[in-house]
Amino acid sequence: PMSEEARTKAEADLRTTVTERDSQIAAKDQQIGELRNLYNQSQVELEQEKEAREKDRVKSQNEIDKLVLINEKLRSELDEIKQESFEVPDGHIRRVDNVSRLVWIDIGDADFLKPRMTFSIYSKETPGVARTTADIKGKIEVTRIVGPHLAEAKIIEEDLYRPMSPGDYIYTPLWSPGRAERFAIVGEVDLDGDGQSDRALFQQEMAVRGAEIVDEVDDEGNRPNPAIDESVKYLIMGKIPDAADATLAEDQTRIKNITNHQADMRKEARLYGVRIIPLNSFLDYIGYKSKRRLFKPGDNRGYNLKAGAASTGVNEPIMNRSSSGQVSGSYGAPSKALPPQTSSGTTSKLFGGK
User: Fold this and answer.
1) Is residue 210 a part of any domain in this protein?
2) Which among 116, 178, 124 is positioned nearest to 143, based on CA atoms?
3) Are 5 and 52 in the same domain?
């Protein structure tokens, strides 16, 4: 058995060991506390630095956005002043028959031209094509391929004050010999101004002419295949709807998506040097002519009819055109009976009467 002295010594050693361990733990706790405080301070400083950097980034981005807008504005103003275009004519008019309303152009089967291709027409004195729609003097549609470098086309629209003549330029952005042109489009597609979407018809017209729509935001605001790069010829801008006009939440979401995609596509177009063009100008450049609108009973759209109840010249309102059932008094029964016509028995003195 352990003696009392040994037990006392062992207990003293244990207390010493515990005290030393407690001191070490306290020192570690203090060290951990100091490190934790240092860490917290570092985190605060880091967050402050991040906030400062974020403010600098936002400020720089705002300045960049402003400069981009200024650059776009200056570029648009410069384009309007200089009216430069890097596009070249696709061919020329060789002959015009004003009686049959036909023209013959100097491209054909060897140039991989197909019927139904449409072109815009420019005077041979014009310094370039696709500068501005004001230069366009008419539109034609290819009806028959005559030879390797000859085709027949019908005149579908013409400026009467600037008739087509041999040597005039023809141009369309849709066609290049042996190559399919690529396009991107965003916004509403209304080809005839009736307020209804003509996206399917637009896609069909593009496909018929051999063009490809490689990037598109549909009517629901979806952009399934972002594909704007240097191979895209034009970014076509349709009408962007206003979210303020939408009453339903899903319509507001759809319009917001279209607007966001439009902003992204404009940035991508600037990055790759793709020309941005309004839909109406694009339709003029390709020589597209809207089909005649068909009146449908119950449709409340306005139509300027050449013959009808309203005057298109003065915008006269349509009044009640039903008959009252009455006729002029000139043709009606007299209101009072006339007195009977009786003779006095005398004759004029000219005939010997007394």
Assistant:
1) yes
2) 116
3) yes
Q: Give how many domains the chain has, as a whole number.
A: 3
Q: Is residue 324 part of a domain?
A: no
Residue 142 pLDDT more than 50? yes
Report which of residues 333 and 108 the model is more confident about.
Answer: 108
- Domain membership flag for residue 16: yes
Give the end of a domain, one of 130, 155, 172: 172
Find out whether 173 and 286 touch, Cβ atoms under 8 Å.
yes
Of the listed ranges 76-80, 237-241, 248-252, the least confidently predicted one is: 76-80
Of 172, 199, 224, the position where a domain reaches its end is 172
- Other Cβ atoms less than 10 A from the Cβ of 183: the count is 22
What does the DSSP 8-state code read for residue 130? S
- Tell me: do 35 and 5 sit in the same domain: yes
Of 64-68, 76-80, 279-283, where does mean pLDDT reach its minimum? 76-80
Same domain, 153 and 204: no
Classify residue 110 by its DSSP letter.
G
Entry pTM: 0.61
For the chain, the first-to-last Cα distance in angstroms comes to 194
197, 273: one domain: yes
What pLDDT, on a 0 to 100 scale, did the predictor assign at position 311? 42
Asked whether the predicted pLDDT for residue 3 surpasses 70, the reply is: yes
Together in a domain, 105 and 15: no
- Coil, helix or strand at residue 180: strand
Tell whether 297 is covered by a domain: no
Radius of gyration for the chain, computed over Cα atoms and rounded to the nearest angstrom: 43
One domain for residues 189 and 279: yes
Mention every residue, 6+ apart, whose C-beta is less than 8 A from residue 138: 120, 121, 155, 157, 158, 159, 162, 164
Between strands 275-278 and 232-237, the pairing is: parallel
Q: What pLDDT, on a 0 to 100 scale, did the predictor assign at position 82?
A: 56
Q: Which residues span the domain enclosing 158?
A: 91-172
- What are the pLDDT digits (tens) for 143-164? 999 999 999 999 999 999 999 9
**Local structure of 245: helix, strand or coil:** helix
CA torsion through residues 194, 199, 204, 209, sign = positive
325, pLDDT greater than 80: no
